[in-house]
Specification:
The chain is α/β, with parallel strands linked by helices. It has two domains: 110 residues, Arc Repressor Mutant, subunit A, CATH 1.10.10.10; 159 residues, Rossmann fold (3-Layer(aba) Sandwich). It is built from 14 helices and five strands. It has a five-stranded parallel β-sheet, sandwiched between helices. Helix 2 packs across helix 4 and helix 4 crosses helix 5. The longest helix has 22 residues. The chain is globular. The chain starts with a helix and ends in a 13-residue tail after the last helix. InterPro entries: Homeodomain-like_sf, HTH_RpiR, RpiR-like, RpiR-like_SIS, SIS_dom, SIS_dom_sf, WH-like_DNA-bd_sf. This is Transcriptional regulator HexR. Pfam families: HTH_6, SIS.
Length: 286
């Protein structure tokens, strides 16, 4: 019997605190494997000694040994779909797994972000002459969402998910321009080339990507969230959601940094598009 099966079989025998740990691990085993004991304890809202006690209940020597056993017990999930989802999962199971694993990954992302780098990124964006968002594949939808957020900010902004357009944009960039590159792995060769080309033309490159990746090495500023998702084998899910949230964080920081007068402009934008909507009905939620 593997570790996950052992946890599920004995879940009713655990103490209340130990059961909290078990539930977090069952919901997102892949996140647990990549978490520190402090992170897992925080996610389960228990103490670190409780996590250690839980691990020893499963006949492991401690948390590091437990993570090794957990990693060994994890099947490959459903290839090209999701690591946490099994072939025989029904709608209840896979719906619960996707929501719970995504929420757990967002918590990991939040705790791994460096707020000083967030602040620096907001500084750079608010001082930019022009902002461009580039992404390929699944990350292209994040780049388009960023365009939707920043387009209303009364600053030149563009978005390209075509590599030729990205390169031409970089060639036409210059000092004061900011290019935001979005890639979970940071190993897409074309985007690494784009980052290098942008810097050659004096643009400032912000990368939403993995630390120590080839893309990170070619960027001026890296925002990394450490979301444990293998997008080489599985569909990008939690990593994409985390990227979208990070765009919201940057857009919020941009808005607050610009001050009340800038928010008055946003209010006018909102008022102008009201006529494109039907009147809200009682009970409607937007």
């Amino acid at each position: 019997m593997n570790t996950l099966e052992l946890i599920q079989k004995n879940i009713d025998t655990f103490s209340k605190s130990e059961r909290k740990v078990a539930e977090v691990i069952i919901a997102a085993p892949q996140v647990a494997i990549h978490s520190s004991i402090a992170t897992l304890a925080r996610m389960a809202e228990v103490s670190e000694p409780t996590v250690n006690r839980f691990c020893r209940r499963l006949e492991t020597k401690g948390f590091p040994d437990f993570k090794l056993h957990l990693a060994q017990s994890l099947a490959n999930g459903t290839p090209y779909v999701n690591r946490n989802v099994n072939e025989d999962d029904g709608p209840d199971a896979y719906t619960s797994k996707i929501f719970e694993s995504t929420m757990a990954c967002l918590d990991v992302a939040k705790n791994s972000l460096d707020v000083n780098l967030i602040n620096r990124a907001v500084d750079v964006l608010t001082q930019a002459k022009k902002i461009s968002f580039f992404g390929l594949g699944a990350s292209s939808s994040v780049a388009h969402d960023a365009l939707n957020k920043f387009f209303r900010f009364n600053i030149p902004v563009s978005c390209f998910d075509d590599i030729v357009m990205q390169k031409m944009s970089c060639i036409n960039s210059g000092e004061g321009d900011v290019i935001v590159l979005i890639s979970h792995t940071g190993r897409t060769k074309a985007l690494v080339e784009v980052a290098s080309l942008a810097r050659e033309n004096d643009a400032f490159v912000i990368a939403l990507t993995a630390l120590n990746s080839p893309l990170a090495e070619q960027s001026n500023l890296v925002l990394s969230m450490g979301v444990p998702e293998d997008t080489d084998i599985y569909m990008p899910m939690a990593s994409r959601i985390a990227q979208l949230v990070l765009i919201d964080v940057l857009a919020t920081g941009f808005t607050l940094r610009r001050g009340p007068k800038f928010r008055d402009n946003l209010k006018r934008v909102k008022q102008e598009i009201q006529e494109s909507r039907y009147t809200k009905f009682a009970g409607d939620v937007e």
